[in-house]
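Hi Y.,

Following your request, here is the sequence exactly as I used it, all 187 residues.
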Amino acid sequence: MNMDSDLQIAGDILEVPHLLQPERAHPETVAEFAGLARSIATDRAQWAPYVEYDATTRWYHRLRTGPGYEVWLLSWVPGQGSGLHDHGLSSGVLTVLEGELTERTDRGGRTLAPGGERVFAPGYVHEVVNDSLEPAVSLHVYFPGLTEMPMHESLREQCAPVGTEASGASAALDASGAPAAPGVVVG
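Below is the corresponding structure, written out as tokens. Let me know if you'd prefer a different format.
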């Protein structure tokens, strides 16, 4: 009877680097993008120096880009909201860093406190609002990078963006990721 174990035959797998999966330089899966958002969220030094508040519009700053993705930081004073929208062909992760944000969808509303996270696929229609009395800060990861943000009239008509392409209802972003039209921001 042979008493050799697989470990004795093959040796310690950690000692055989060619058998290990190579470490990825950038996220590729939804779970990895959610992990990226959580790692940035827990490292306040990566985002806190960039937070600003603007009473006239939501403030935003692109924190990072990588192959096929980008990371945005947004701040919200009380009462500010995104309007009902989707993210075109982009999937995303929304993480609340400070304060509280309310997300509204066709299934109702939910309040997201610090650490609260939402993962969404292309075509996901929602509205994000600061319904609280305190400012809020959120982190958004989009993959692929955000190129449009079609606005919607109501949750009941979520499959039909407001107006038509000719009316500019779909907010295009320029190559730097900044909104091409004034007053239109990522969300």
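The helical segments are 6-10, 30-42, 44-47.

Thanks again,
Q.
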